[in-house]
């Protein structure tokens, strides 16, 4: 392949420039190389060393973004070509990032995965039993989601002997803290047993002799009845338990100065290595154990163990030959690499080959092998939500939820949250902490019904006990941790307004399958204001205007969140729980206030607090530094001291910290953000960068308390030097907390840094009185009128008078209304509303969207139907247009039903196109014609979010967006004289027709070339021949320009798609790239009067022949590609292809013609033939050989003759059909000819191209070729 690619590169051509005459033959030009997802073939021996092709080594890593948690795998024998084994997510969950961990079983064939939305770590209960688990087959991508929710703690999951694993869940039962262990048979994909034990058991792993875990200062075995038996003393506590192939258990212990590495087997515990504290880590994969660190040494390595001089937190492959040192999404060094809102982000992987020292880098765009399995609802979701209290959630025709628990509704066009930029958030925080956030908000701010106000007029800043101010970076750190500094949901980009993030609005579970308002979590905005934000709270905490303001206005939300933080400081001060010298100017002194901000203060005998007790009070155990759910050798959050290179670090300057926020307490995370800032994508600048200025720390890092600072017997019943006897198993040991219920609550002041000179202080860059930064707009509302729109009757998607921030003001008239119908589930709830959204862009500043689902009984509960109804009757002809916005609209099959006409085809499918271009920029929204219809009465148009199963591939549920924006009716004077549909394959779609070296393909037909599940490469071009051709009734204007301006005398549609075979047109058969079959798209009816069609080239396997010949010929120089076999059946194509033409190609072509003319019984059909694609001239002779080209031209000629004869027979049989012959026009102008009208090999890739040796644009007409084709069209119509 490498040699073939090299030869191909010698004859690359760029898309030809537009020219009236044939373009000159110029020098060859290079294209843009795709990002590498594997080690290039030619470099593999050098980079990977000898023997790579026979290696069984496998690398596995993972990374999350807003679309899901991606499990990535690469095998040495494939040059470590990265692929996405699975993407795990729960549809409808709104998060900025999915987080999780994996472990690989002994066979290397399976990974056990724990995954969760990032915000889960902020909730104590969900941290312990809110994450989800799955088994992923790394070969096939099959996903088995397990039925129990689990902990997100660092040790979950735990792989061990064979194909076994253990998962841990924690909860309280009758006053006792329960560690529940699930034994998993990964090969069977099921939980085989469940064991409950009292107390905090961590790091459980399966061995051939049972489960081994850590508890307090002991390594313990856990019996089938839950009995815990000490097997080895582990001073300070055992962590990072790892099982080797012999069933031995490796683990770490540590002192202040030293890390000890142990191996326990057959009753014997042995220290096998020691190292400076924090310099090494113990990890395992596929039955091997690795001691990792830049200076890692194993003086006497046990069998199956090895020391690896790699960063301590890197991920080694199954044999230890390959180290993944960083796997991160988003590249701060790549300006313009904007992600799709809430979408998939490419993952940058940096690695090291241990044998050669090479450091290859990769980039992979996640695309799961079996995407639906990763998105299928986890059976554990319902268990994370709790039970009881669910009430039917309102009505099926209201976009809001009248029966909600939370005070402010979603999906009310008058209540939308502005997504602030990072600069705006920092400005507001800097001013708020000074009491100067007094910017004037006019009445009706952001489209709301609010009166005029100022943020800190509405929420006056509370005073700190004893005076002083909040450091700005403490407030900003809270915002970073709580919301990613987002006021609105992840669907809204900077400067855009939409719904607030719904995290727990419908219940504290994840996913879109259930509604349980009784369990709702009513957090709002950037600071996640929760208290006082339920319907039941009424105005006891906030007035209605305050509730609305902190929802729609990020500044008001920050002002409210600041007061909550101040109240926590004051509460701690009143209780006498202060840190260090209690001066609020110092960042670290806010430790206890942050602890209380997150998990609260537990009072004695508080009936409103399920964690209240009669004998203890204070701050809870979950945020205690001594909690053994947290990794013991951790550094400060975002201060990871591993040795990965700067270019391998993530956006916060470390290797992998931000991927595992659950490894730190809430105060550690907030102070970590204060020290390092949050880095995220800035839609205004098009760059990744820091969101705020970092706090100043004199020592270069925060002064953090030691792990056992809050563990003292006299203060909170915590003592690592003692053991505790749980009530159910006398004689066993417990954790540092000496209580079965883990109620080791802290209620005492502490000084861990006596020198104020070493404490951090704020750094403020915005001064009181400074003007509010403006957000700019990445996506914009469309305030224009449709082309040729005089007399258009537009039905908007919201009521007249609705105002939005990005809208177009008053004055527009809506000639009708859009109403919705939401399908309930069996309980009468409306989960369909969970995945329903609004944004203040699109046409005139508002549209709705939802994700698509396959039309099935099980998915009925997700169905949303919107119906636009005109406010007047139309008795005659009118064109129907729908507005497709520039984002929130990505489905390849939006099914519109036009009601009230006599068309034999009222259901029309639209491929929406809200994708970014190759420069990561949006295209403008557009009006799309559904066609001209003869109406009688009041017309309406309906659209739902269901897709149909007739497509190639498997469109995943809950990924593509479908939008409801405006609809327009264009009254026409009568039936359009020309009603045309262009159908067929790439020669009709305009593949290769890309003028001026830019992509002229419609965006919806050219995207996601690296993602098989989402890819569309139909490559319909604006300059396809059916568009640039002219009709006799208007010879001065092309068909395309007339169509684009909605000429009343023309109705034109194109369904042609690159790669189409005959069956891709047939009703009920698969279409391509998620689109319906071309006949099913609905544009043919009894009024169609012209169809253009080309088909048969792909059925004749011409593309396969050319692509394989490129690979075949270099090894058979002097021979002919006619001798090669396409199917490894030993039969040369010189035999199989001629037979295929007569047995399949022509019969399928004739069936297609009959089906098309049956759907359009009054249409003439122009069948366009194929030219000779390749000339027998250099440099094509170098690529294929002269003998190959001679044979191929003969086959192309044979197809031409058979198609021409077939059309003639059908014409003679009475059908209104003609054969349009392009061969004379293209004579001598094929690839490598004089004045090429057809591309030779092209290696500049479009967005939708699959990244292979050459682009699919190769050997297709260029713009000059499209012009020749258009001339053939015009001559054929003229001579009809």
TrEMBL record:
GO terms for biological process: triglyceride catabolic process. The keyword Disulfide bond applies. Residues 1-19 form the signal peptide. Keywords: Disulfide bond, Signal. It comes from the Bacteria. One of its GO terms (molecular function) is triacylglycerol lipase activity. Residues 18-37, 358-414 are annotated as: Disordered. Transmembrane segments: none annotated. SUPFAM superfamilies: Lysozyme-like (SSF53955), SGNH hydrolase (SSF52266). The active site is at residues 986, 1260. InterPro entries: Lysozyme-like_dom_sf, SEST-like, SGNH_hydro_sf. Disulfide bonds join 1018-1057, 1109-1121, 1180-1232. This is SGNH hydrolase-type esterase domain-containing protein.
């Amino acid at each position: 392949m490498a040699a073939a690619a090299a030869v191909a590169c010698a004859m690359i051509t760029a898309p030809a420039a537009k020219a009236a005459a044939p373009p000159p033959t110029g020098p060859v030009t290079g294209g843009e190389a795709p990002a590498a997802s594997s080690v290039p073939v030619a470099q593999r021996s050098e980079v990977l060393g000898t023997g790579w092709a026979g290696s069984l080594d496998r690398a596995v890593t993972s990374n999350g973004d807003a679309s899901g948690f991606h499990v990535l795998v690469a095998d040495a024998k494939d040059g470590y070509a990265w692929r996405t084994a699975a993407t795990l997510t729960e549809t409808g969950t709104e998060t900025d990032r999915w987080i999780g961990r994996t472990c690989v079983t002994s066979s290397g064939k399976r990974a056990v995965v724990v995954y969760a939305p990032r915000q889960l770590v902020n909730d104590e209960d969900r941290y312990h039993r809110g994450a989800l688990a799955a088994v992923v087959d790394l070969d096939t991508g099959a996903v088995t989601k397990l039925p129990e929710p689990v902990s997100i703690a660092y040790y979950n999951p735990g792989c061990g002997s064979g194909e076994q694993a253990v998962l841990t869940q924690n909860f309280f039962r009758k006053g006792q803290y329960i560690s529940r262990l699930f034994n998993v048979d990964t090969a069977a994909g099921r939980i085989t047993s469940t064991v409950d034990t009292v107390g905090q058991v961590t790091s459980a792993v399966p061995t051939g002799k049972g489960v081994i875990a850590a508890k307090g200062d002991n390594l313990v075995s856990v019996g089938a009845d839950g009995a815990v038996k000490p097997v080895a003393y582990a001073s300070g506590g055992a962590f990072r338990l790892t099982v080797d192939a012999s069933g031995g258990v490796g683990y770490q212990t540590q002192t202040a100065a030293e890390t000890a590495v142990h191996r326990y087997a057959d009753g014997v515990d042995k220290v096998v290595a020691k190292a400076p504290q924090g310099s090494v880590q113990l990890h395992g994969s596929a039955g091997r154990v690795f001691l990792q660190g830049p200076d890692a040494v194993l003086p006497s390595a046990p069998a199956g163990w090895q020391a690896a001089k790699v960063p301590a937190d890197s991920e080694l492959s199954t044999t230890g030959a390959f180290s993944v040192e960083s796997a991160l999404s988003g590249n701060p060094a790549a300006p313009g690499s904007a992600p799709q809102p809430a979408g998939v982000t490419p993952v940058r992987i940096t690695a090291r080959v241990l044998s050669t020292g090479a450091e290859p880098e990769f980039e992979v765009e996640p695309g799961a092998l079996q995407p639906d399995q990763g998105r299928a609802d986890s059976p554990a979701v319902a268990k994370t939500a709790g039970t009881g209290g669910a009430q039917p959630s309102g009505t099926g025709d209201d976009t809001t939820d009248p029966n909600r628990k939370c005070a402010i509704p979603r999906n009310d066009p008058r209540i939308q949250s502005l997504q602030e930029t990072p600069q705006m958030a920092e400005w507001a925080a800097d001013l708020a902490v000074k009491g100067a956030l007094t910017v004037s908000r006019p009445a009706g701010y952001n489209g709301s019904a609010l009166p005029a106000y100022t943020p800190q007029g509405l929420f006056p800043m509370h005073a700190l006990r004893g005076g002083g101010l909040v450091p700005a970076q403490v407030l900003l750190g809270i915002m970073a941790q709580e919301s990613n500094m987002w006021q609105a949901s992840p669907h809204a980009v900077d400067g855009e307004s939409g719904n607030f993030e719904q995290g727990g609005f419908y219940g504290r579970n994840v996913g879109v399958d259930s509604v349980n308002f009784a369990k709702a979590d009513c957090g709002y905005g950037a600071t996640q204001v929760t208290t006082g934000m339920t319907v039941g709270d009424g105005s006891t905490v906030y007035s209605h205007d305050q509730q609305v303001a902190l929802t729609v206005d990020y500044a008001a939300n920050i002002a409210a969140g600041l007061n909550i933080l101040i109240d926590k400081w004051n509460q701690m001060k009143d209780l006498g729980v202060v840190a260090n010298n209690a001066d609020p100017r110092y960042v670290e002194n806010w430790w206890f206030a942050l602890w209380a901000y997150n998990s609260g203060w537990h009072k004695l005998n508080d009936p409103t607090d399920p964690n209240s007790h009669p004998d203890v009070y204070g701050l809870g155990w979950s945020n205690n530094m001594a909690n053994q759910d947290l990794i013991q050798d951790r550094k400060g959050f975002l201060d990871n001291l591993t040795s990965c290179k700067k270019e391998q670090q993530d956006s916060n300057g470390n290797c992998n910290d931000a991927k595992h926020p659950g490894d730190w307490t809430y105060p550690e995370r907030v102070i970590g953000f204060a020290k390092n800032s949050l880095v995220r994508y800035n839609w205004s600048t098009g760059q990744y960068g820091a969101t705020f200025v970092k706090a100043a720390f004199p020592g270069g890092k925060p002064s953090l308390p030691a792990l056992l600072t809050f563990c003292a017997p006299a203060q909170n019943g915590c003592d690592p030097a003692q053991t505790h006897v749980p009530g159910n198993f006398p004689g066993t040991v417990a954790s540092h907390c000496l209580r079965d219920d883990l109620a080791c609550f802290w209620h005492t002041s502490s000084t861990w840094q006596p020198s104020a000179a070493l404490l951090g202080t704020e750094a403020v860059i915005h001064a009181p009185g400074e003007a509010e930064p403006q957000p700019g707009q990445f996506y914009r509302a469309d305030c224009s009128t449709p082309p040729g729109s005089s007399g258009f009757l537009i039905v908007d998607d919201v009521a007249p008078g609705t105002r939005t921030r990005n809208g177009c003001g008053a004055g527009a008239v809506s000639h009708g209304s859009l109403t919705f119908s939401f399908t309930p589930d069996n309980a009468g709830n409306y989960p369909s509303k969970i995945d329903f959204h609004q944004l203040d862009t699109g046409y005139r500043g508002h549209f709705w969207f939802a994700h698509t689902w396959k039309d099935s009984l099980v998915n009925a509960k997700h169905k949303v139907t919107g119906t636009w109804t005109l406010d007047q009757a139309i008795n005659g002809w009118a064109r129907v247009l729908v507005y497709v916005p520039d984002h929130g609209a990505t489905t390849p099959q939006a099914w519109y039903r036009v009601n009230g006409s006599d068309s034999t085809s009222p259901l029309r499918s639209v491929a929406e196109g809200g994708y970014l271009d190759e420069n990561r920029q949006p295209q403008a929204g557009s009006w799309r014609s559904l066609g001209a219809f003869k109406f009688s009465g009041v017309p309406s148009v309906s659209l739902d979010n269901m897709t149909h199963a007739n497509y190639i591939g498997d469109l995943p549920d809950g990924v593509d967006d479908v939008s409801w924006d405006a609809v327009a009716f264009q009254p026409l004077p009568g039936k359009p004289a020309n009603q045309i549909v262009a159908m067929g394959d790439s020669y009709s779609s305009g593949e290769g027709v890309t003028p001026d070296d830019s992509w002229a393909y419609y965006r919806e037909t050219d995207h996601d070339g690296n993602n098989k599940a989402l890819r569309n490469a139909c490559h319909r071009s604006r300059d396809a021949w059916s568009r640039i051709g002219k009709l006799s009734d208007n010879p001065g204007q092309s068909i395309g320009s007339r169509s684009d301006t909605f000429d009343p005398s023309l109705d034109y549609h194109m369904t042609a798609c690159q790669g189409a075979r005959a069956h891709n047109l047939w009703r009920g058969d698969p279409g391509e790239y998620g689109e319906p079959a071309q006949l099913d798209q609905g544009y043919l009816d009894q009024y169609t009067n012209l169809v253009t069609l080309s088909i048969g080239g792909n059925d004749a396997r011409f593309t396969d022949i050319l692509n394989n010949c490129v690979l075949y010929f270099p090894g058979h120089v002097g021979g002919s590609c006619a001798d090669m076999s396409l199917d490894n059946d030993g039969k040369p194509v010189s035999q199989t292809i001629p037979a295929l033409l007569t047995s399949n190609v022509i019969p399928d072509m004739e069936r297609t013609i009959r089906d098309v003319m049956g759907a359009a019984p009054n249409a003439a059909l122009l069948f366009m033939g194929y030219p000779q694609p390749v000339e027998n001239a250099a440099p094509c002779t170098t690529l294929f050989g002269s003998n190959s080209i001679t044979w191929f031209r003969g086959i192309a000629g044979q197809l031409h003759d058979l198609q021409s004869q077939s059309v003639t027979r059908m014409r003679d049989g009475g059908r209104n059909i003609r054969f349009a012959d392009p061969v004379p026009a293209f004579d001598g102008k094929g690839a490598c000819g004089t004045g090429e009208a057809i591309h030779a090999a092209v290696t500049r890739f479009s967005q939708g191209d699959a990244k292979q040796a050459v682009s699919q644009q190769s050997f297709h007409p260029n713009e000059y070729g499209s012009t020749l084709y258009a001339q053939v069209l015009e001559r054929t119509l003229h001579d009809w």
